[in-house]
Amino acid sequence: MAKTVVLAYSGGLDTSVALKWLQVEKGYEVIACSVDVGQQEDLTEVRARALATGAKIAEVVEVQEEFANEFIARAIRAGALYENRYPLVSSLSRPIISKHLVEVARRYGADAVAHGCTGKGNDQVRFEVAIRTLAPELEVLAPVREWGFAREDTIDYGLANGVQVNANRANPYSIDQNLWGRAIECGEMEDPWNSPPSDIYAYTVPHGSVPDSVVIGFNKGVPVSLDGEEMPLYLLITRLNAIAGSYGIGRIDMVENRRVGIKSREVYEAPAATVLLEAHRQLEDITLERELAHTKIELGLQWATLVYDGLWYSPLRMAFDAFMEEASSVVTGEVRVRFSPNGFVVDGRRSPLSLYDYELATYARADTFNHLDAEGFVKIFGLGLETWSKRQGRVQP
Q1: Contacts of 10 by beta carbon, 8 Å cutoff, 6+ apart
Q2: Is domain 4-173 given the CATH code 3.90.960.10 in the classification?
Q3: Residue ranges of the binding site
Q4: Is 94 one of the catalytic residues?
Q5: Annotated binding site for L-aspartate
Q6: What distance in Å separates the CA atoms of residue 236 and residue 214, rounded to the nearest whole number?
Q7: CB-based burial label for 84 (10 Å; 0-12, 13-18, 19+)
Q8: pLDDT class of 118 with cuts at 50, 70, 90
Q9: What top-level class would CATH report for the domain 176-350?
Q10: Is 174 one of the catalytic residues?
Q11: Where do the Arginosuccinate synthase C-terminal domain residues begin and end (predicted)?
Q12: Mean pLDDT across the chain, nearest whole number?
């Protein structure tokens, strides 16, 4: 009796060829599982493609709301940017996809789970660590890593076996997209000197008439409204993607350090992520106490690296989240964002929990700060350096 494998199926080149390869070369019955994380693709068509390629069963799992509430919201609270630039577009989707792959595998009594990742990428780590943590009894297969094809060979194998693929030698890009953004790589962009081709973009192009500013409402660190209209987070992100994307906001072109030790040139589109993370940070500027704010920045970088590395299902991430939830308990208020071509500024922020005290900050007559208090503070603050300079100092003026 043939073994059964659940394949994480996107409908792209690698997973379409993997579906056929698992049948032809390995003799598996394949259940294709497509997880809807907001990739703006007709998943009915993707399901039909899986069945046409030979899948025994093809399932589509809708998780956009769960993805926003349980994964993206945590990233916003953490202010998560890997290497201070990348908003974890693909990194955040892998653990929720893995979770649902495991659920489908258990429901059908499958023997294994498979993914379409290469041997030099980050996603193999994210999928496999997550799946083995959630279901150590399942075998994990990596067809792309096992067959070792060059991208051109993968295209040829697919064409030779009747697999309908979107990629070809003239369009060699690898694209991953979800609610939080798009990631584009391969082709001429593998040379970091080459400018990205203009035709790769989809989120950061004009989308019709859009406002020139928005007011984003936050409750305990999570976005809850646009211009006073409350809405679920996944809809807010979708709407903000369209607004900010129309101004060309959210393009990120970077050479990042992969977990496997390779430097990789990646191009991202993340309009809503770019705006929301900055708006959230500026709301924290008026609501977080100084030492808490500084510590949160440090832990946010660690949180981003942890998730980038595929350790979502780990006690450390859960411990970090407990800190982020407590720190975010006061991050409630509104932020006004004003857009311009290829950029934006935050030009207003307010909160009922603001630590900004006008009477302490102003230099006008309303000033209540006792300036004479500063003399003793400054002397004591610098006393250690003053003593060192007198006794041991080598300071040159």
Answers
A1: 34, 39, 46, 116, 176
A2: no
A3: 8-16, 86, 91, 116, 118, 122-123, 126, 174, 256, 268
A4: yes
A5: 118, 122-123
A6: 12
A7: exposed
A8: confident
A9: alpha beta
A10: yes
A11: 173-385
A12: 94
Burial of 15-54, coded b for 16+ CB within 10 Å and e otherwise, reads bbbbbbbbbeebebbbbbbbbbbbbeeebeebbebbeebb
**Among 77, 90, 98, 123, which one carries the catalytic annotation?**
123
Report the alpha-carbon distance of residue 77 to residue 324 in Å, rounded. 6
Question: Catalytic residue at 156?
Answer: no
Q: Which residues are annotated as a binding site for L-citrulline?
A: 86, 91, 122, 126, 174, 256, 268
Q: Has 14 been annotated as catalytic? A: yes
- Is residue 55 pLDDT above 80, yes or no? yes
Using alpha carbons, select from 119, 72, 122 the residue that is nearest to residue 93: 72
Q: Can you tell me the distance from the alpha carbon of 62 to that of 95, in angstroms, rounded to the nearest whole number? A: 15
* Residue spans per domain, the chain: 4-173, 176-350, 358-391
pTM of the model: 0.93
Multiple choice CATH, 358-391, 1.10.10, 1.20.5, 3.90.226, 2.60.40: 1.20.5
